[in-house]
Amino acid sequence: MRGVDKRRRLTAAAAQVLHRQGVERTTIADIAKTADVPVGNVYYYFKTKDELVQAALSEHEGSLAELTAELDKLPDPLDRLKALVEAWVSQRDTAARYGCPTGTLAAELDKRADGTLDREVGRVIRVLLDWAEDQFRALGLPDPGDLAVTLVAGYQGMSLLTNALRDPDIMTREGDRLIRWLDTLTSGT
Amino acid sequence: MRGVDKRRRLTAAAAQVLHRQGVERTTIADIAKTADVPVGNVYYYFKTKDELVQAALSEHEGSLAELTAELDKLPDPLDRLKALVEAWVSQRDTAARYGCPTGTLAAELDKRADGTLDREVGRVIRVLLDWAEDQFRALGLPDPGDLAVTLVAGYQGMSLLTNALRDPDIMTREGDRLIRWLDTLTSGT
DNA sequence: GTCTATATTTGGATAGAC
DNA sequence: GTCTATCCAAATATAGAC
Question: How far is the CA of A167 from the C1' of D9 (A)?
Fold first, then answer.
């Protein structure tokens, strides 16, 4: 089953290279080279470039599922949310260089006239929003959906500024602010 | 002076089309067509595509300068900041379709290995941050720089989610939240 | 399943007539 | 200053040998 192995390598390479270079500036050859697969052979596994983008998106969705599964082991929903923020902040150097993998992909795909892939990326973002909403609801807070949007928007905003200004410290400071915000929400005053 | 006119039309067209389609998916022909200028003639005014991107960026910077100049007419810095948020929210339909002009441009340009244009876009974002910082400082608040980052990150975050989910209502709700946040900052408790 | 060679298209950029 | 025709490079995708 060497084929399965190559498919996985191509998927992993696509996720990494597309994040770093963006969709439009990445060539099939770039991905093939990173995966150490000859260019022509790529088409045996993925018929078009868009299928590689789709595979990369699924890879990011998988990482997100892994992360939330890990967080779900924590008993307290508030701790889960705080740990999520900490996980984001721990990625600050990558964010400073390349931004949030899903966020930058969404921004790029949303520019397309063809609305197939950008509906997909919207769905992945919704998975994160839904998970966060569940935590806020478990805490008994009002408007858990709005709170989830505020949290994720906070993350996307700090990622973009961190990236645009190439300054990981923004991520640290804004992460601290989000943690404090989560505390005030639940301090019941 | 027909030349000046064409240059301006090309600049305006570049700003609009690059915002809608993104840099990489926009061809010189797209911009030329929108500006109603023959393709070959474009190169008389702009030697490369990157010069057109630079021109579009300057156009956005000009719009920002116009907006802040207008806001500066308001006597109270808090009113200025609130009016800024309201100006953002009023653009919610455009944001839902194409995102924030400067933010999406920054995300795209930051993917480049060549760091010329992405330093430029960072500078434009800094202009906005500096203006906001001035307002927070005028209000006598501590850490005005951090507050400016939080405000602009809030804008970029809500723009990205609004765009990715194609939902202008997110912009309305998050805008309201930013206004309430500005109020709590200054309510002096 | 793998890989090389190549067909095809697109788009940035230029030459040169007017 | 204006515009057409075209060059050329890059990149997606395919053909077909192994």
Answer: 36
Spatial separation of the C-alpha atoms in residues A131 and A125, rounded to whole Å: 10
Q: Which two tokens stand for residue B151?
A: 């405000």
Rounded average pLDDT over B24-51: 96
CB atoms within 10 A of CB B13: 23
Tokens of residue A129, six digits:
């929003």
Cβ contacts of B189 on chain A, cutoff 8 Å: none
Q: What is the largest distance, in Å, between two alpha-carbon atoms of chain B?
A: 63
Share of chain B above pLDDT 90, in %: 94
Residue B37 neighbours by CB distance under 10 Å: 18
User: Measured between CA atoms, how close is A42 to chain B, in angstroms?
Assistant: 23
Segments of chain A with pLDDT less than 50: none
pLDDT(B2) > 90: no
Rounded-to-integer distance, Cα A175 and Cα A37, Å: 39
Alpha helices by DSSP H, B72-115: 77-90, 92-98, 101-109
Which domains occur in chain A, in start order? 57-186 (1.10.357.10)
Nearest to B173 among A99, A104, A146 (CB): A146
> Which pLDDT does position A3 carry in this prediction?
64
Whether the predicted pLDDT of B3 surpasses 80 = no
Q: Strand D: which bases are under 7 Å from protein Cβ?
A: 1-6, 10-16
Contact A103 B98 (CB under 8 A): no
Residues B17-30: tens digit of each pLDDT: 999 999 999 999 99
